[in-house]
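As noted in the main text, all predictions were made from sequence alone. Below is one such record, for FAD-dependent oxidoreductase.
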Amino acid sequence: MLDYIVVGFGISGLSVTRSLSNRKLSFVLYNNSSQNASLAAGGLVNPLMLKTGKPVWNVDEFLPHAKSFYSSFNQEYFSSLPIHRVFFSVEDQNNHVSQFQNSLTSLYTKYAILEAYPNINAPYKMSEVLGGGVIQIQRLLQNELYNLKQQNKIFTETFNHDLLVFHKNHIEYKGTKARNIIFCEGYGICLNPFFKQLPIQGNKGEYLLFKSRELQLNAILKNKYFLIPLGNDVYKYGATYNRNDFSKLASQEAREEMLVYLDKLISCSYEIIEQIAGIRPTVKDKKPIYGTHPIYKNMHILNGMGSRGLMMAPLLAEELLRHIEQGEPLRKEVDVKRFIAT
Ligand SMILES: Cc1cc2nc3c(=O)[nH]c(=O)nc-3n(C[C@H](O)[C@H](O)[C@H](O)COP(=O)(O)OP(=O)(O)OC[C@H]3O[C@@H](n4cnc5c(N)ncnc54)[C@H](O)[C@@H]3O)c2cc1C
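Prediction:
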């Protein structure tokens, strides 16, 4: 009998399978390509909410754990980069200064008001956030998927929830027995009959990828959207938010919206090379969801990562495993039980 079946291989599934491997627990993984939030992600890790200047929820726990997670592979996937918010006006700049004076965010924010970089339009200058950076998440997922294939641990197919059989102390799927199953399906959770009552909503995001030799930027910028350097003169710009369109197709509307703000931000030439879309799994209280199903004790979930999955999923997966294997308590504000009664 296996220890686990895992369904889904975005950042949530990767974090779970990594925690399982670290514990030398056996598993197989089912993954299809119905969702791609992690593959579409900008790769950004940002410790602050740039609008308010406040630290993101529990950043002092999530950020160090995420950095050590992304450094634990045989290649480095995290690059530390400053994040600059481009001020829209003098008033915006003044607000930043008073936010800084009234808050405890000095660990991540620099008081300095910075001049623009070459080829960047920032007449009202920029703030600086420290401690963040960019993760090459697409490369990491592709490499780890390849490794799991080599170990015969992955079925590239849709998991059919109707075929799951429950026994007293284990579950069984197509003849494979396992002690536990963990669903990491992203927005695909809306087709999961065991967790369909969870208030997970889709929020579509789109990015533009462009190439520019002249830009030569080695920092993350934000005006309306984020500009993220990916290396080799390639940059990402986005991402949009849309709660009404759940197709994975790139839209002309989002492209035009992003181009308006990209043209305001950079003054050199560039060439659009791609547009990517994905659906973020978001929760109405803006917190992720993890834990054990109240009826089926060997069924678990890690989901609802919203727009900060890359920073939060590694620690939450570790906590979920400690809960299942060692009985350690979960964080109440993230526990699935806040939505499903026992
Ligand atoms: C455009 C965009 C930009 C973003 N940028 C950032 C960013 O810069 N930083 C950040 O932290 N977050 C970002 N996010 C949010 C982040 O991507 C998500 O929080 C995170 O990727 C969610 O990961 P996940 O593993 O839960 O879901 P997913 O990445 O969607 O993975 C779920 C996987 O499960 C598979 N699956 C689903 N159902 C089944 C089934 N029945 N059988 C088999 N497989 C199944 C799916 O096909 C998929 O492979 C962004 C999101 C979008 C859309």
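The longest strand covers residues 271-283. Residues 309-326 form the longest helix (18 residues). These features were considered when defining construct boundaries for the mutagenesis experiments described in Section 2.9.
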